[in-house]
Amino acid sequence: xxxAPSMRELLGExxxxxxxKWGDDDEVGSLNYLDAEQxxxxxxxxRTGQVFTLQCPMGHPxxxxxxxxxxxxxxxxxxxxxxxxxxxxxxxxxxxxxxDDKAEIxxxxxxxYDALGHAWYDDTLWxxxxxxxxxxxxxxxxxxxxxxxxxxxxxGVLIDMARHRGKDWLDxxxxxxxxxxxxxxxxxxxxxxxxxxxxxxTGFLKYFFSVSHDEFYENFIxxxxxxxxxxxxxxxSTEIPNLVTDTIANEVTAEPExxxxxxxxxxxxxxxxxxxAEIIWLDDLADACAADGRWDFLYTAAxxxxxxxxxxxxxxxxxx
Length: 320
Ligand code: UVW
Hints:
Order of helices and strands: HHEEHEEHEHEHEHHEHEHEHEEE
CATH topology of the largest domain: Glucose Oxidase, domain 1
CATH architecture of the largest domain: 3-Layer(bba) Sandwich
Bound molecules: acetylphosphate
Shape: globular
Largest sheet: 9 strands, mixed
Strand order of the largest sheet: 1-13-11-5-7-9-10-4-12
Number of strands: 13
Radius of gyration: 21 Å
Structural class: alpha/beta
Helix content: 25-40%
Distance between the termini: 46 Å
CATH class of the largest domain: Alpha Beta
C-alpha cells in the first residue's frame, strides 16, 4: 500500500466541525445536545425496569482488552490478614482490621470515555485549542473532567451489527457505514433518532474473551464504522452526542483504503465533539433487547472525575 495520506488530506481542508457552536470555552461538545428534554426522552423509554451495567470487569482472569501498547490493571493488596498476623499491619483501637489495595491502571485501559482532547491532528484539539495544552503533566484543555462533571443521560439505542449479519462477532477489519446502521436499525424495528446515544455491538469483546491473546492481537485490526465525509455529516446532522461500542477504539482501526489510523477519532471526537465510549460490554443488553424486540432505553454514564486526565474508566448503567 502507498504511504498513507495525512489526516488533513483524508478529511479535507474544510471538514464538518462544531467548533464554537457552544462557545469557545466549551469542553463537552456534542454532549450539549443532551438537555433536559433528552433526559426525559430517555426516561420515557423505560418499560420494565431491567437494569444493566455495561463495564467490562477490570482485572479479569482472562486479561483485560486494551489497545496494543497499553496494559490492563495491575492491582496489589496493601493490607490483608497475613500482614496483620505477622504483626506488621496497623493496630487500631478495638482491634478492627481491614483489607486494602492499590492499582496501577491505564486510564484508557478499560471501559472508558475519551476526553475530547484525547486525539488530534494538525497540532490542534477540540474547539481549536493548541495541542500544547496536553503538555506539562496533564491536559489543561478538554480533559475528561468536564465530561465527568456533566454526566451522560439520554435515550440510548442499540444497533447489533453482529446479530444483524448473523455472526457471533464481526471479523477483523470488517466495516460498516451509517447506512448499514440504519438498515440494521430498520431490521430490528427501531429508529435512530436525533440526539440518540448510539450504541453499536460488534461482538468483538466476546471474541476477546473467547480466544487466546495471541489470536486476538494477531494482525490487530478491529471491526467498526469506517470514515466517509457522508458518515461524518450524518453524525453532525443527526446530532449524535455519544458513540458507544464494544470495541477498543470505536471504529475500524485503520481506514481500509488509505491505512490512516483512527480517522473517526479525528473527525468525530476532535472536529464534532462527539464523545467516545469504548470497551463497553453490550452482550447482555443485546440479548435482552433481542428477546423482547425493544432496542431503546435510558442510558446513563459518568466517567471518574480525574483532573487533567485523557480519559477515565466508566461503568454505564442502562435501564429499559
Ligand atoms: C487510542 O488512543 C489509540 O485509542 P482509544 O481512543 O481507543 O483509547
